[in-house]
Amino acid sequence: MANFNKVILLGNLTRDPELRYTPKGTAVAKLGLAVSRVWTNEAGEKKEDVTFVDVDVFGRTAENVGQYMRKGRPILIEGRLKLDQWDDKQTGQKRSKLSVVAETVQFLGSPGGGEGGGAAPAPRAPRPAAASAPAPAAEPVEGDEPPENDDVPF
Asked: Which residues neighbour 18 within 8 Å (Cβ) at sequence distance 6 or greater?
């Protein structure tokens, strides 16, 4: 049986991206995304439903997101769903969380005005030097995210 795991989300960042690096030097950006749905009920009242989604971005795209995006900015994410499961250390219960792993990211609006507003972002600290590693490709590449056993420093 065929499988298909694709998500396309357009929303606003709920917080500034959190940019970190794995021990092997891969950039990882954690984003919070708010996606709204507006509709009119039978009584003619406008209603809004907001869904909050956690998104992980890897590689050079993560560095770009960390450098240029800020809370409130609109962004388009295309990626796949990922289910994380673990045992809660305090209660011993099984826990799970559904998130999105971004494969492509498109910045929307403008940094100096328009949607998302706000001033141009302050520059971030440069990426730590890697031992003559080639620059990552602009497009996502298979293996762009760390292996499952690689510890992400969050």
From this structure: 29, 30, 31, 154
At 91-126, the pLDDT tens digits run: 889 999 999 999 999 999 876 554 444 444 444 555
Tokens of 129: 């030097």
| Residue 35 and residue 109 in contact, taking contact as beta carbons nearer than 8 Å | no
Within a 13 Å sphere around the CA of 9, how many CA atoms are in the beta-carbon half?
26
Q: Rounded CA gap, 105 and 27, in Å?
A: 15
What are the tokens at 114? 């328009």
What letter represents residue 81's amino acid? L
What pTM was estimated for this model as a whole?
0.69
